[in-house]
């Protein structure tokens, strides 16, 4: 982020090469961290699951299959792996803040998707997938972390009333409400 004088900080947006706007997605923010919380990213990168099992997966379809078979929730930490006892103030009991724990399979796979540099077609495949609500949820999370804030409502539009998959609907509403603070 650059901050000059009284100007507001700006985020880097990598734009596709001229003539390739159709299937190439822009990338908003940090091109290495995916804009993830530093504690989550550190835990993903040091996770044996990410370093060993996910390293073996080389294609989009292999990762989608892994999401289908392995993801059981969309939280950043595995259930029961965080110690929040004794934390006070603003960090006490807040998800994603504090001492961390075992990073979830979902967030490892989310970052793996990021390393594949998804195309628009692949991302649309995730958010319209009908086999698993978690495949769709990770697609919307990918959008939230990588796409320009001004584009988020356009991505979420049409999915906010998804009654087929309540988990996806919950994730979309949470992500949608979190974007209100990002819009300029």
UniProtKB/TrEMBL annotation:
Give the family per the record: Belongs to the PRP38 family.
Keyword check for Nucleus, yes or no.
Answer: yes
* GO CC terms: spliceosomal complex
Question: What's its job?
Answer: May be required for pre-mRNA splicing.
Coarse class of the primary localization is nucleus
Q: Name one GO biological process term.
A: mRNA splicing, via spliceosome
* Naturally occurring in which organism (per UniProt): Cyclopterus lumpus (Lumpsucker)
Keyword annotations for this protein, in alphabetical order, are: mRNA processing, mRNA splicing, Nucleus, Spliceosome
Protein's cellular compartments: Nucleus
PANTHER family assigned: PRE-MRNA-SPLICING FACTOR 38A-RELATED
Short name of any one Pfam family annotated for the protein: PRP38
- Entries under InterPro entries matching the protein: PRP38 (IPR005037)
Entry keyword annotation includes Nucleus: yes
For this entry, the protein name equals Pre-mRNA-splicing factor 38B
């Amino acid at each position: 982020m650059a901050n000059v004088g009284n100007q507001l900080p700006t985020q880097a947006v990598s734009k596709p090469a001229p003539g390739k706007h159709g299937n190439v997605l822009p990338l908003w923010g940090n091109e290495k961290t995916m804009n993830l919380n530093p504690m989550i990213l550190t835990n993903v990168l040091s996770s044996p699951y990410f370093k060993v099992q996910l390293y073996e997966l080389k294609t989009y379809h292999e990762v989608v299959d892994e999401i289908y078979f392995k993801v059981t929730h969309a939280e950043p930490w595995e259930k029961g792996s965080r110690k929040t006892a004794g934390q006070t103030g603003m960090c006490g009991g807040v998800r994603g803040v504090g001492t961390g724990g075992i990073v979830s399979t979902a967030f490892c796979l989310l970052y793996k998707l990021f390393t594949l540099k998804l195309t628009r077609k692949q991302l649309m495949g995730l958010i319209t997938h009908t086999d698993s609500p978690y495949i769709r949820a990770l697609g919307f999370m990918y959008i939230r972390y990588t796409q320009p804030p001004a584009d988020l409502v356009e991505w979420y539009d049409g999915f906010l009333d998804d009654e087929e998959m309540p988990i996806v609907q919950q994730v979309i509403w949470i992500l949608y409400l979190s974007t209100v603070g990002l819009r300029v």
